[in-house]
Design goal:
Layout lengths: L3 E6 L6 H14 L3 E4 L16 H11 L4 E4 L10 H15 L3 E5 L4 H4 L9 H18 L5 E4 L4 E5 L11 E4 L3 H10 L2 E4 L4 H12 L3 E9 L4 H11 L9 H4 L3 H8 L4 H5 L3 E2 L3 H13 L4 E6 L4 H12 L4
Parallel strand pairs: 1-2, 1-11, 2-3, 3-4, 4-7, 7-8, 8-9, 9-10, 9-11
Antiparallel strand pairs: 5-6
Helix pairs in contact: 1-2, 1-13, 2-3, 3-5, 6-7, 12-13
């Protein structure tokens, strides 16, 4: 299977109308698919946006004709009940006419605490995600359905607007337990690092032959130094490792941690500058680790320049 290259629609950085426009530009440039982030808050103030993803998907459905689109990723466990996510995803799949897939993950406290719910342990979040997937698939069967589980109750709910086929579910994972769940229950894997051990865990749990999506952060600019500055200013969270990405509650908390992140720290994880070989080398790392799809996140405002650069220098090389 040839590697497919996708484009990241960063809801944390761009308003809804710009996201729709960028999706159309990515389609015109030859990207095969796109992912769109599902956040209530951006990570840091410099990002500055956070539109409601399901409204934006409706706009993208009518602005594009070919490109596939998936959420990257939706948390269906706390802020939004999985029955509502099931309805939203079904509607999106109908509007996208078979071009939509649902990316799911266990979420971050940054987005999920806003309704006052307790932030559970990692083990509990995985358990909740597994039950949420059961609820999604149950409701996509059609007819009136009920569910009484450890975490969720559904009482005689029926989704009337259903696609001909339910959307594929891609499950995000950064550790073995989540990769096992993705292989067992999901139709695809999503990860943010070219980790061959994660891919192996996914395959051993039932993921063999299924799609594997990896996200790559880049900052294209004709000037590499300027690209490094932009990446550091706009996306310092690229260098916040460990469990930090899931456990901080507000943008101001991430902002405080960002003060400790150096430009060189971000540059070690983000491909910066105009050298196509540097971008291609990182994409090939994902391919060598067993990924079938790579979706690229261009950090900062230079989306048109990035899309042009990739259409001329990177996509042809793949």
């Amino acid at each position: 299977m040839p590697l497919e290259l996708g484009y990241t629609l960063s809801s944390e950085e761009h308003g809804p109308n710009d996201l729709v426009r960028n999706a159309r530009a990515a389609e015109d440039a030859g990207f095969e698919f796109a992912t769109i982030s599902d956040h209530f808050h951006p990570w840091v103030d410099a990002q500055g946006e956070s539109p409601f993803v399901w409204s934006v998907i409706g706009g993208i459905a009518h602005a594009t004709e070919r490109i596939r689109l998936g959420t990257g990723v939706t948390c269906p466990t706390i802020r939004i009940h999985p029955a509502i996510v099931a309805q939203a995803a079904a509607t999106s799949a109908v509007m996208m006419e078979g071009r939509f897939f649902l990316g799911l993950g266990t979420g971050e406290e940054l987005n999920e605490h806003v309704t006052g719910a307790r932030w559970p342990s990692p083990e509990a979040r995985l358990e909740m995600l597994e039950e949420a997937i059961d609820v999604l698939r149950l409701l996509w069967q059609g007819g009136y359905q009920s569910h009484h589980g450890a975490h969720y109750v559904v009482e005689q709910a029926r989704i009337f607007t259903l696609p001909d086929e339910p959307p594929p579910i891609a499950v995000a994972a950064s550790k073995g337990q989540a990769a096992e769940l993705a292989g067992r229950l999901g139709d695809a894997l999503i990860s943010v690092a070219p980790d061959d051990e994660l891919v192996a865990a996914f395959e051993q749990a039932g993921g063999e032959g299924k799609s594997r999506y990896g996200q790559l952060h880049v900052c294209y600019d004709e000037n590499e130094e300027r690209a490094r500055r932009t990446a550091h200013e706009v996306w310092p969270n690229a260098a916040m490792g460990g469990a930090l990405g899931q456990e901080l509650a507000t943008t101001s908390h991430y902002q405080a941690v960002a003060e400790l992140v150096r430009e060189e720290d971000v540059a070690t994880t983000v491909v910066c500058g105009p050298d196509p070989e540097a971008h291609l080398e990182k994409i090939r790392e994902y391919e060598q680790a067993g990924f079938t799809h790579v979706f690229v996140h261009q950090i900062g405002p230079e989306q048109d320049a990035f899309i042009r650069f990739y259409s001329e220098k990177v996509l042809p090389a793949l």
